[in-house]
Each structure stands twice: as structure tokens, then as C-alpha cells.
């Protein structure tokens, strides 16, 4: 079995968000669980059996599987931040938006999201190739 905490560790090491330090343990756990569940929804082709009561995966996950889930969590973490900044954009005129610090922040978030999505896609492709080769070897 693999603990959700192990996946959370990979995720938390991928971001810098000091607001998580201010959360109560239960609130942090709920936030991370929500991100985990959204991330698992992105992995339709990979089936993970989970035990919500024990907060574990029923199987022992490889480091690649944990990394893929953590990358998906990062994507789910970044998206709402981009949306909240984009909501502010129409409220400002062009000149104000160009000088507004969130405009640069939005560009950085979008860049990080794009790079994370590319890495996520690449890791999924490698994972799929590894599974294919493992099955091919078993059938030989």
C-alpha cells in the first residue's frame, strides 16, 4: 500500500505556497484530498484503487506513478489561480492591466501550467510505453 501522504509529499515539494503552513491539519488534509481526487480524475486510463478510510492506495505505487499523480495535482492547483487572475482582467482598463502586478503573475502561472502539462503528458507517455513493453515481455 502507498499512503496518500507520500503523494502529498511529492506535490508539496513541487510548489511554494506558504498559506498551506497556516492551515489547520484537517483543513490541509481536506485541501490535499480534493486536489488528489481531481488529479485522479485526469488519469482515466490508469486505474488506482484507493481506500479513503485508510487514506491509502491499495497497491504499492512506483515513483513514476506517484510523480504523475503529483503533477496532475499541480495542474489542478494552478488552474483556479489562473482563473481568479483572469477574472480581474476585464475590470481594469488596458493601461492599468499592463501595470498591474497580477498581469505578470498570470503570464508566469500560464507558463508554469503549460510546462507542467507538458511534463505530465510526457510522463504519461513513458508510463504507457513501459506498461506496453511489460505486457509484451510477459506475452513473449
What would you say this structure looks like, in words?
The protein has about 140 residues and is mainly α. The chain has one domain. About 75% of the residues lie in helices and about 5% in strands. It has 6 helices and 3 strands; from the N terminus they run βαααββααα. It has helices at about 5-10, 20, 25-40, 65-90, 95-100, 100-140, and strands at about 1-5, 50, 55. A 3-stranded antiparallel beta sheet has the order 1-3-2. A hairpin with a 4-residue loop joins strand 2 (about 50) and strand 3. Helix 3 (about 25-40) crosses helix 4 (about 65-90) and helix 4 packs antiparallel against helix 6 (about 100-140). The protein is flat. It starts with a strand and ends with a helix. The model has no long low-confidence stretch (mean pLDDT about 85).
Q: Short description, anyone?
A:
The protein is built from six helices and three strands. The protein is mainly α and 140 residues long.
Task: Give the SSE map.
Layout: E1 2-3, H1 4-12, H2 19-22, H3 25-42, E2 50-51, E3 56-57, H4 63-88, H5 94-99, H6 101-139
Antiparallel strand pairs: 1-3, 2-3
- Number of self-contained structural domains: 1
Helix-strand category:
mainly alpha
State the helicity in percent bands. Answer: over 70%
Largest sheet: 3 strands, antiparallel
Notable features of this structure?
140 residues; mainly alpha; three-stranded antiparallel beta sheet
